[in-house]
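INPUT
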Amino acid sequence: MKRAACFVLAASALTTAAFADAALPLYIGGRAVPKIVKVESGSWFSPDTEATTYTYQWPGVYFEAAFTGDRVAVKVDDTENNLYVWIDGVHRLTLTRPGKTTVALKDLGAGRHVVRLEKASETQGTTGRFEGFTVPEKADVLPAPTYTRAIEFIGDSYTVGYGNQSRGQTCTTDDVRDTTDTSRAWGPAVAKHFNAAYRINAFSGRGIVRNYNGIAAGDTLPYLYKFALFDHSVAADDVGWTPDVVIVGLGTNDFSTPLNPGEKWATRDALHADYVRTYADFVKSLRAKYPNAHIVMMAPDNNANETANNMKAAAALAQSEGVADLETVIFTGLDWMACHYHPSLKDEDILSKLVIERLNQLPKFAPAVAAQ
Amino acid sequence: MKRAACFVLAASALTTAAFADAALPLYIGGRAVPKIVKVESGSWFSPDTEATTYTYQWPGVYFEAAFTGDRVAVKVDDTENNLYVWIDGVHRLTLTRPGKTTVALKDLGAGRHVVRLEKASETQGTTGRFEGFTVPEKADVLPAPTYTRAIEFIGDSYTVGYGNQSRGQTCTTDDVRDTTDTSRAWGPAVAKHFNAAYRINAFSGRGIVRNYNGIAAGDTLPYLYKFALFDHSVAADDVGWTPDVVIVGLGTNDFSTPLNPGEKWATRDALHADYVRTYADFVKSLRAKYPNAHIVMMAPDNNANETANNMKAAAALAQSEGVADLETVIFTGLDWMACHYHPSLKDEDILSKLVIERLNQLPKFAPAVAAQ
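OUTPUT
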């Protein structure tokens, strides 16, 4: 009987190490909906435990954690996205629409490591789920990374990085899916330059009052912005998120096509007026939400400056109604060589450099400070 | 003392499960150089073991193994390639120039699984190393997958899949690195259609007698073909490899540029004659190596058919000197929209369908047989 008891002990030790790994505390970059789920231990001698999963849909969402030791496991359930796994700032793995998958990185070497899972692709109609990072032993758990700077990006496809890895403008739906890489868009590049946390609240095809070619009337970006999921089922919970800078780029979809019969604006002038008023109100709501944030409004100089001119009018209106610490940026010189005339990787570089130069002017983002 | 012994047993069981995993026997698709290395157990109570690693350089090399149970680990040491990990025919992970990395897939579900590691990118100046698949327990080891059909592809960049994922013709060196995906080239598509094993013995820029623009004189594909590594340090060991079909596509690089001063051919006619004679000799050497293989010679119809016409002359010469079971295929209708006017993914599809139609004519590859 002593021998039998002994083998049970051995099995228990094995199970603890291999299956009941310790979950790492997270830094979450972006909106994700937590849900506590029961994890069945699968054995009579160890109790069931609880774990938190995170459902995500906005682009560019990332999860980070720190640990010691040479291994970490990443657990996802996502049939639609390309997900990147980074270790210590190096992109090591891509999970290509992996489904329900647990992947473990081993032989990482001793010492502290930071693991990061990042949503690279855009999914407008489906969600994915992150089920946590784990390490073999509780002693390997470290506090999650923290940031002293934070930037929020609000926009459309230009902010998502729509098709940005493409080397051509002609793309199928699958091409767009495969070539959109938010991690290589200008926003994350700016944030990484300043070692800043960031969120990408952007949705391709959406505008301030009018979406691309008039689709999905009313479901504009300022409306979607209120939610964590795009079906409006879960309100956004931005508690604990206080960006130093909010950068908004919206208007291309409002103006890129002629008005169709049946849309709510009788004339182009009426569309312009609605855009200016609504955009100013949206900026005022951002100021109310983030009283100390520096706000940047961006627009391209293409399409005879229709977006740029109306964006500047919206900024002037917001300023006249009390919104301070607000600047506008017009960008130029892009080659638009990615899918459907979107910014190419070369353009992402132009945009990130332009924005970095602007943010360098802010005391908290000044080069000497940011290098710390 | 009984209790103490008991805890040693527990630790030993844990170590065996977590660290001394069982290596899986392999099916290796392509040339790889095995090397037996000592694996230190890192503990006083378990002996050091041996493992075989595989150095690879030719494109499209893949390693496959079968196992039962819900987890498998993949061990690589490769700072240059994009490597794909497939489980049961589904591409689940991409290792992006991962360095020395062990990655484990877990929660795969019970039952038999097939794991596959595949080199997607082309590396001409560096090698990578595969260090094996492992499962936690010896009982989970299954025999490696086997194939009843086998195809060898010999060629240049068109066979490598050079830049094929690009949606444009303008590409930097990094673009080519990032967009070359041999797994999506026409050769692997043809082989997978027939559930055939395959090898890709191809090298971008090489020709029959002359490489692209005359570079690397003498180090042509028929010469490189003799080696497992491109520095000529290790002879190819093709023991056990008996392809049913050998498909050769070479000549684009011989003819795509004007002759430069100092090259060994005084005239274009001399180049043509050397190509025809050397290509016929190469085909004769393939016939000697693989007496029962069906041989296909392929060429595009571009560049005023200079490649196609000379390829046909080489085929006629080989046939006149006794090479039977040989056919030629001229392909047309490509858009050449990938990097530097290479076949696009759309073109890969045209090419694979064309070759599948031809191979359907072979008794062993006839649709009714191939479906088995």
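end of record. The two ends of chain B are 61 Å apart (CA to CA).
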